[in-house]
Protein: ABC transporter substrate-binding protein
Amino acid sequence: MTKSKLALGLSTIALMATATAGFAQSQDACGLGVNSVRWIGGDASGSDISTVSDFEEQMALVLSGTNYVSQFELSSTTDVRIEAEGRGMSDPMFELYDSTGTLLLTDDDSGGGTSAMVETSLDSGTYCVLLRSYDNSPMTSYLRIGRQEHERLTSGVMDEEVISGVEEAINEALEDDMFSSDGMFDMPGLTCDSSMYAEPLMIGSSGTASVNEVPYWRFTIDEPMSVTITAEGDSADPYITLYDDYGGYLTENDDYDGLNSRIDMVDPLDPGDYCITMEALSDSYSPITVSVYEYDAEEVLMQSYASGEAAPPLDGSYPMTELADLTTRIRQDVRINGDVEWFSFYVPEGGLLLIEAITVDGGGDPFVYLYDDLGRQVGYNDDGPAGLDSMLATKITNGSYMLAVGDLNYGTGTPLRILLERYVPAR
Structure:
């Protein structure tokens, strides 16, 4: 009989919210250093996936930057399926550990979309599933563990229709002799080697063309060199892939900066020819400016500050607006015209910090990063808990903090309103 997902979820939330939770808990299960671990089936006997009549399921409420750990048993070798499906914009991922704390496997998106799923055979024993949010933001997710004959929670990456399409493509490739001598499948128009014509590009220079005009660019380095490759063209939404002269895949990127792409090859490339393949995810007729230049660590650091992905020093060397001490509440308006705006503030006493960033005219998509005075990331949020506005809630101690506020609608100049509120523990 299929369990009611809603009933399970509501009962789980209620149990989690009380001190007398119905889920038996074990201390430091699987050697993960976690003191609160819930049996997937309520207790050890109900969590033996080898013998249960149906799958077991929990609803996990994961706060920002935290983990949720669930435990299950196998009394015999069993083919199991582990699945996690988020609600709303949640993006769950999980890790599977055995009783000794050995990491066995991890998954993010194999369940289709942002859902995680693994099907595997496990020997008898005790196992733990550590569930967390991919971007460390607050998350609500269902976790289901069962045998492979039980009902699925996720759709899976490849359903029957997709598999049929892949098989058809492979058959066509065999007919058209598209497999190379080493058995690899040559996708036309995606790989690039010395036999492919590519528009030449000098180190330290740029070239502009649409993907339809120039699908490949080539550059040459004469001595070992770290390089940076950028592709800029918001209307095109460029996607770039780097290959060596033999068609060997090196790396790829999409949406490093807004819709623009960037590759940083920090480890020096060997002397030789290299090829960049171009794809336009939006408009293949729209121009894209491609640049190749020597990697500059200082420039990359400045880019990290500008995007909010790293915190600048609190020594006045990088533009930052100093706010008043956060005793109770601060409201600040800002207009984002590209790079994030940085703010610093001091918290005289620890507690709960709530940060909200909303669009005044409803036309933006804000995000926030929070760092302590050492530059350690305390929290991040985009699109939560509802809509495109941001909300971050996290515990803090007294001290100095840095807040970066940005807008994913890059360069639109959208007015944003920021709210910082501090809540202290009841006494």
Remarks:
- Residues 1-24, 158-162, 178-189 have pLDDT under 50 and may be disordered.
- The chain has three domains: 5-147, 199-295, 311-423.
- The chain is about 10% helix and 45% strand.
